[in-house]
Amino acid sequence: MVRMICLLVVAATALHAYPEFQKYSQTHSGRTVNCGMCHASPEGPDGLSFGQVGSLDSVQMELLKEARRAQRPGMEVNNPVLNTFGNRLVRVMGVRLLVDAKKDPAMLHFYLKDAGDMDGDGVTDAQEYLDGTNPNNRHHGDPLVLFLTNVQHHLFEIVMILLATAAGMFGLSNLLMAFAAGGKKP
Ligand SMILES: [Ca+2]
Q1: pTM for this one?
Q2: Cα 146 to middle of ligand 1, angstroms
Q3: Which of 15, 70, 93, 100 is least crowded, fewest Cβ atoms below 10 Å from its Cβ?
């Protein structure tokens, strides 16, 4: 009986899935994008596993319902079947705009343009959506882009280390020359 209720809940929630965004991100980037970009479970919201609708307790079900009522942008939500990025999407756009954007998934990039860089890897959430990388994971992305971004972020420290190294080598060189000069007989 409990399992049947869970399956009914799962069937109902399928209406709220957003595979259009996953498909767009995948097509645009050429990367494989799973549901874990926005959802707590990489398998998506529908199912009985952890992070899926069928596994939620009564408190989490209330949070889910509350998040689905967040029609307007700017409302704080904590949907247990979404991850941090997914909840941010709902907060930035609201459910109504999100549903509208399913018709034109490229619009998600437009709405996210001021949403920042959630994982702090230097690549904006909007760009990660286009790149098909995980906005929740600062280590997931094009290695060259992440490397250049990190260099940019730590440029001051890198310059300081290079200057200290150069000064150290200059000092060592002078010291060795002094030793060499001191060892010569007059
Ligand atoms: Ca990022």
Answers
A1: 0.72
A2: 9
A3: 15
